[in-house]
Backbone:
């Protein structure tokens, strides 16, 4: 039996490479969902090579992930730059070596793809395998439009990872968040979101979301149709928070307040909360850069606890996030096998390592204190404060 974690965190200094992990998930997710629609001469925009070493400026990027799908353990890997060079999928059937499902590689210069179907492909081999696969298309992406039996489950597991590299803003609330929570105002996610905001002690008693129709927007005629459409969709939903209000007779009521006028932290929690509650319901993976952005540490800890608690996470959703807030690893909230550290070497290369890699570390050490003290490294090297004003460096 394979055991997996419900939550994992990556800590490290600014520019240590934490976000590279998030970007890798984003690139993989994008290529699997979109590459089958690329035109033949389309160069892969997700390619982002290491820019600080001439030897690797144009070298292919390799991404490999292990995943569990309906009790089966798969390993999927790709290597690409402007085109796909290699792609493979293997399945672990409990034997000494993984069993190949399929692989493909491309000879440089001739654009010829060599596709190999292995014993892990348990159904009839489809005709399209022998056809020309374009050099910028992933096989797994092509499978999304074909009948590929259990491989469709592998596709969906990777294609529908929720990846966020920027804090949720008002535009995202309109085009991504609202459709999640307000299929109708009676959805369970909507009510859970209201309760989450109340628990976070933001002074908000209730939330409403109103969908505006096209004819409610008064946009000047000189605005192009495409710009009109964007303005409408960016402002389709009106979000209101209701705060406690005391009138002149000292009677308590509530006053609506446009969510745009709330603090960045409140807006972020509102959008992020909707995403998290949706992920918990679907049992999927959320990959988030800087989860704690504009949030109080206690609220960040609350969000992590939602994934750690079997009662709030019965569908085994997972959370992978980066943060600078070391308090998320304090007070036994996370074990050492859930905490990863990012650090750059003298060549500018990022290295990722687990606290479990250190010797004589118990499964639940006082991690926050040890990390802050520098025991695990991955801290910013901040000294020579006087240099900022004098330009002089002390030996």
Residues:
């Amino acid at each position: 039996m394979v055991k997996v974690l419900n939550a994992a965190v990556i800590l490290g200094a600014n520019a240590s490479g934490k976000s590279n992990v998030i970007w890798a998930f984003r690139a993989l997710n994008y290529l699997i969902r979109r590459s089958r629609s690329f035109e033949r001469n389309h160069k892969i925009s997700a390619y982002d090579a290491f820019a600080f070493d001439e030897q690797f400026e144009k070298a292919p990027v390799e991404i490999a992930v292990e995943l569990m799908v309906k009790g089966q353990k798969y390993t999927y890997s790709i290597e690409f730059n402007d085109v796909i060079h290699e792609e493979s999928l293997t399945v672990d059937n409990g034997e000494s070596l993984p069993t190949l499902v399929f692989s493909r590689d491309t000879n440089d210069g001739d654009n010829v793809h060599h596709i190999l179907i292995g014993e892990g492909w348990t159904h009839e081999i489809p005709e399209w395998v022998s056809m020309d696969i374009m050099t910028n298309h992933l096989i797994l992406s092509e499978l999304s439009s074909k009948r590929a039996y259990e491989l469709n489950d592998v596709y969906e597991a990777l294609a529908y990872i929720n990846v966020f590299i920027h804090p949720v803003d008002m535009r995202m609330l309109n085009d991504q968040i609202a459709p999640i929570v307000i299929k109708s105002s009676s959805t369970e996610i909507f009510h859970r979101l209201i309760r989450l905001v109340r628990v976070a002690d933001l002074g908000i008693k209730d939330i409403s979301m109103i969908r505006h129709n096209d004819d409610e927007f008064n946009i000047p005629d000189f605005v192009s149709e495409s710009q009109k459409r964007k303005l409408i969709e960016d402002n389709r939903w009106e979000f209101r928070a209701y705060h406690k209000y005391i009138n002149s007779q000292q009677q308590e009521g509530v006053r609506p307040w446009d969510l745009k006028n709330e603090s960045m932290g409140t807006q972020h929690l509102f959008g992020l909360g909707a995403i998290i509650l949706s992920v918990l319901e679907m049992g999927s993976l959320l990959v988030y850069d800087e989860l704690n952005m504009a949030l109080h540490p206690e609220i960040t800890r609350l969000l992590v606890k939602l994934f750690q608690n079997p009662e709030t996470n019965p569908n085994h959703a997972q959370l992978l996030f980066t943060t600078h807030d070391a308090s998320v690893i304090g007070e036994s909230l996370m074990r050492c096998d859930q905490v990863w550290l990012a650090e750059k070497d003298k060549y500018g290369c990022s290295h990722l390592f687990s606290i479990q890699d250190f010797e004589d570390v118990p499964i639940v050490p006082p991690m926050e204190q040890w990390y802050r003290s520098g025991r695990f490294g991955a801290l910013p090297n901040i000294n020579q404060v006087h240099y900022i004003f004098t330009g002089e460096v002390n030996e």
Remarks:
- The CA atoms of residues 338 and 368 lie 13 Å apart.
- The chain has a mean pLDDT of 82.
- The chain is about 25% helix and 25% strand.
- The first helix runs from residue 18 to 34.
